[in-house]
Design goal:
This protein is an alpha+beta fold and 180 residues long. It has 2 domains: 73 residues, RNA 2'-phosphotransferase, Tpt1/KptA family, N-terminal domain (Arc Repressor Mutant, subunit A, Orthogonal Bundle), CATH 1.10.10; 89 residues, ADP-ribosylation fold (Alpha-Beta Barrel), CATH 3.20.170.30. 30% of the residues lie in helices and 22% in strands. The strands form 4 sheets. It has a 4-stranded antiparallel beta sheet with strand order 4-9-10-7, with no helix packed on it. A 3-stranded antiparallel beta sheet has the order 1-3-2. The chain has a 3-stranded antiparallel beta sheet with strand order 5-8-12. Helix 1 crosses helix 3. The longest helix has 13 residues. The relative contact order is 0.16.
């Protein structure tokens, strides 16, 4: 597998389907690296512990975290697995955040707002450039501005993952506008 394939596989397993390789995550999303490797190999994926560490420590996206002892890994956010219920500190967000999406989703978003879908949180970016990159992963990108300051004033809760991604449960449509 290429490094990108390894990272995508690990993201899939840690975020959505640990049971697909017989893996059990704790409530904070941690998995034993040796168990992950054994499960992947038993399922026909050639994977080594060094591949897992490489995926966790390389790249600008910082999707994963290694435990202090280097024996466990977890995805920082994006979970849909019911095994995981990460706790994040509640924080005051910046006045505005951004959400990157594909243009094909805009009609639904304008009616429903941003919903977490199968994930536990809506993911927001602190800057337009990052949101544009995120939107580009799903098709022709489009960036929406989120009035996170007003949302917070009205009681909406925000968190920030260790890699800087802002998280909230929903963004109603009245808090969305077009980015520049």
């Amino acid at each position: 597998m290429t490094p990108e394939d390894v990272s995508k596989f690990i993201a899939y397993v840690l975020r959505h389907a640990p049971e697909s390789i017989g893996l059990r995550l704790d409530a904070e999303g941690w998995a034993d690296i040796d168990t992950l490797v054994r499960g992947a190999n038993a399922g026909g994926r050639e994977l080594a512990g060094a591949d897992v560490v490489q995926a966790a420590t390389s790249g600008a996206k910082r999707r994963y975290e290694l435990s202090d002892d280097g024996k466990r890994i977890r995805a920082l956010q994006g979970h849909s697995s019911p095994q995981v219920s990460r706790s994040f500190e509640v924080l005051v967000p910046p006045a505005q955040l951004f959400h990157g999406t594909a243009t094909r989703f805009l009609d639904a978003i304008r009616v429903q707002g941003l919903l977490s879908g199968s994930r536990q949180h809506v993911h927001l970016s602190a800057d337009e450039a990052t949101a544009l990159q995120v939107g580009g992963r799903h098709g022709k990108p489009h960036v929406l501005r989120v009035d996170s300051g007003r949302m917070h004033e009205l009681g909406h809760v925000f968190h920030r993952a260790e890699n800087g991604v802002w998280l909230t449960s929903i963004v109603p449509p009245e808090f969305l506008s077009e980015a520049k």
